[in-house]
Each structure stands twice: as C-alpha cells, then as structure tokens.
Amino acid sequence: MKKNPVGKDAWIIIISFVVSRIIVGYFGIHFGYKALFQYWQYLDVETLRYNLLRGVWYDHAQPPFFNLLLGAVVKLSGDGAPFVFATIFKLITLVNSLLLFIILKRLTKHQYIPLIISLLYLLSPASLIFECELFYTEFVSMLLLTSSLFLFRLKESHSWKNCLGVFIPLIILCLTRSLYHVFWLACIAMIVLLYNRKKPGFNKLLLCSLFSIIIVGSWYFKNYIIFGKFSTSTWIGMNTARNVFHDNEITDSSRIEAFEPFSKISTYSSFLSPGYEKKYIGLNDLDLLHEMKNDSFINANHVGYIEVSDKYMEASKRFIKSNPVSYLKNVMQSSIIFFAPATRYPTTEKETKKIKYYDVLYSFNLSHFAEGKQQRRIGLTVSAIPKILIYLYVFWGIFIVAKRQRKIDLPELFIIITIAFVFIVSSMLEHYENMRFRYEIEPLFLILLGERITTMLKAKQRQEFSLE
C-alpha cells in the first residue's frame, strides 16, 4: 500500500510541536494567566464569571467575542481555568501550523516546502512566546488562515460549507479585533463577489457576505445607540496619541496630551464634562464606573475614556496639522517596528529573555544586546532589515507574475490586501506594538512566501531542462 505523505508530514508537525513545547517548558516559559486580571482589553473577572452577557453588551472599548470566550472558559472550568487556557492557546498554534501546511500543500503541490514553512512557523520564538500569552494574537491568525483555506476551496466548489467557511471566520475576526473594521469586511466581501460574479455559487456568496456585514454592523449600530460611537472600540484617539506624541513631550498640564494615554481615569478629571457618567449609572457599574478593576489594575473600560479618547484625537489632529513632519517621522518609525522581531513585544520581553540566544539566531533580534533607548532603536532597526528584504522579494515576485499573467487569484489578493491594510493602519495609529500586528498576519505572508519559492524553483527547473 502507498504511504500517505500528507499524513506523515502532519505527524512530523505534531511530534515537533510536542517535543518543542516540552523543551520550552524546561526553559521556564509557561502560560501567563495573570493577564486575565491585568490587560486593559478584558472585563473585570467578576463580570466574566457572574455577569458576562451584560458586561459584554455594555463594553464600549472592545469587540465582544474574546471576552465572551474568556468568560465561557472561566465559568465552565472554574479553578481549572489556567490549565484550560494554556491547553487551548497551545493547541491554536498547532492548528495554525496544520492549516498553513494544508494550504501550502494545496497551493504549491511541492513535496517539502509546505512542511518546512509550517515548521518555521511552529518553531519560531514568537510562536513559542505568544501561545503562552493570554491574548488574541494567535487566535486572530487562526481565523485568517481558516478564511484563506476556504477561499482556496472556493475554486473547486461554491458549496454552502465553503461560502460560510470564508465569512464566518471574518465575522468572528471583526468581533474579536477592532482593527478589522466593518468597512474592511465590506471591502473584502465586495472583492469576493466581483471575483465570483459569473460563477454558479454567486447567490450563496452574496447571502453570506450580506449576513456577515449585517451581523458585524449591528454591533457597531448598538455601540452608536448606547455610546454614540460607530465602532467596536472607543480607544482610537488614545491609540493614535501614543504614536503622534511619541518623542514629543508636552509639559503644559492644561493640555490632555501632557498625560500618558491610558492613565487612570482620575488623571483626566479636569478634562471630563461634569455629570458625564449619569446616563450610564445602573447599566454595568462595575465596568463602566469603577476606576480600578480586580482591585488593583486600571479599568480602561471606564465610560470616561470615551470622552478622554475623543480629546486625545482632537489634540492629535491639531498636532499633525501643525507638525506633519514630526508625525511622519513617528509613522516611519512605526513602519520599521512592524518588521522587527515579534518577540520584542513589550509584554512578552521577560519570557523572551529565557530563550535569548535562540531568538537571536532565529529572529536576528539584536536588541537583546542593546542598552538604553537609543541602542534599542538601532538594534530594532537593524533586526528589521532581513524581514523587510524578504517581504520586498516576495511582493516584487508576485507583482512580476501578476503583470505577466495579467491576473491574480482571489486568495492571494485577499492576503495582499489584508497585509497592506494591517501595515498601513498599524503604522499610522500604533507605536511599539506593530511587531505583534505583523505576527498576527505572518502565516498569511508565509503562504505567499511558499508560493514564491515554489515558482522560483519551477522556473529554475524549466531553465535547466531547456539547457539540456
């Protein structure tokens, strides 16, 4: 009987996963459960455990899905929640690796490339670190990979399963990560429909796309009715200010930009309208009106941050208008940080140090040897160069092939648009978190990399054959 190479390769991935995670545990890298209590994005644990649906409904700061997931695990697993979370998040990495392998196998038809690239993702220091963080980073990757897989499957069949497989992950994505706006979803839906307008399954795709936009848009509409914001997060002003005013210290305490964004709400008392909180009393006081959550951590879900964020956005616009060069300088820094090693992400630096030399070797993370702010900047910039060159190589190759063939397939276009969207938005609105933004979409880029390498190898084989 002929052996199944796909099954063999899948087992290699699974065994590599098990062995590598045992080794990582030996180095002292373990799941960080404290994030459930500390991270700004999460509701008070008491809300998650006892008042989940009300808490999520009146959450203006974050999309609902991840808090629902957290609350469900906390409710169902009780004292076993840390173990359950650790298991789930590690399995997500394994699922991502297998999804990446399946997509590359379907796309490249190559014997070795799918396995090699899948192992590169599985064994990367960033994967080892982020799967131990109680955050949605790798969960976002899984949703993007799942949608991509079904986009590839659309080429074979426009079944309900494939159509829903494209859009359901995108619905969950938009309701998990505020970066993926409903307008981004509408753009993706329009492109999918245009590519399939003459296909027999067009009506199924049309219904699925409308369904997805209505579901996601309804949450935006809910937030507009309750909080006056057509968004899944009211933090955009504070996020923007972190980038705009980086390296631009303001000392005038009468201006809100003189204070660090995401400070305690009492810091902004002089900037808040009197009685702003009155219309929210009784809705969900624990999360909307308490300054601290879980006794000792900043409650960034406080309703006062809506007005604070608006004022930061106004200040940011004024500064950009009067100092465009300074802002563009920060955008440039952010765009470079986008390609820096993801292991340099602030909340994971402590764990990364435990595998310092592996990270240096694998990720070229020279910032490990930096001392002080200026050296760290230089280290991050130099460390970003290999990733920048690889991205340029892949995208230039895709451009050349698309120009020659006068077309680009839908899954590849979806990936390119998503990568470009995340790069542009994160560079403009975020600072020093962009490496995590890139890591979330890194599996999508690895799909393009696998395709590019396969195309190059085939071209080389054809050239050698013609010479013979």
The helix content, as a percent range, equals 55-70%
Q: Report the radius of gyration as a whole number of Å.
A: 23 Å
Supply the helix-strand structural class: mainly alpha
According to DSSP, the number of beta strands is 2
* Spans of at least 5 consecutive residues with low confidence: none
The largest beta-sheet arranges its strands as 1-2
Shape: globular
How many domains, in number, for the residues? 1
Compute the separation of the termini in Å: 35 Å
| Mean pLDDT across every amino acid position | 93
Order of helices and strands: HHHHHHHHHHHHHHEEHHHHHHH
| Number of continuous helical runs | 21
Q: What portion of residues belong to β-strands?
A: under 5%
What kind of sheet is the major sheet? 2 strands, antiparallel
Question: What's this model, at a glance?
Answer:
This protein has 468 residues and is an all-alpha fold. 67% of the residues lie in helices and 1% in strands.
Give a verbal description of the structure.
By secondary structure, this protein is mainly alpha-helical. It has one domain (5-467). The protein is built from 21 helices and two strands. It has helices spanning 5-26, 35-38, 45-50, 52-57, 65-77, 81-108, 113-122, 125-130, 137-153, 160-174, 182-195, 202-227, 236-244, 285-288, 304-322, 324-337, 349-352, 356-363, 373-405, 410-429, 434-467, and strands spanning 292-293, 297-298. A two-stranded antiparallel ribbon has the order 1-2. Helix 1 (5-26) runs antiparallel to helix 6, helix 13 runs parallel beside helix 15 (304-322) and helix 16 packs across helix 20. It is globular. The model has no long low-confidence stretch (mean pLDDT 93).
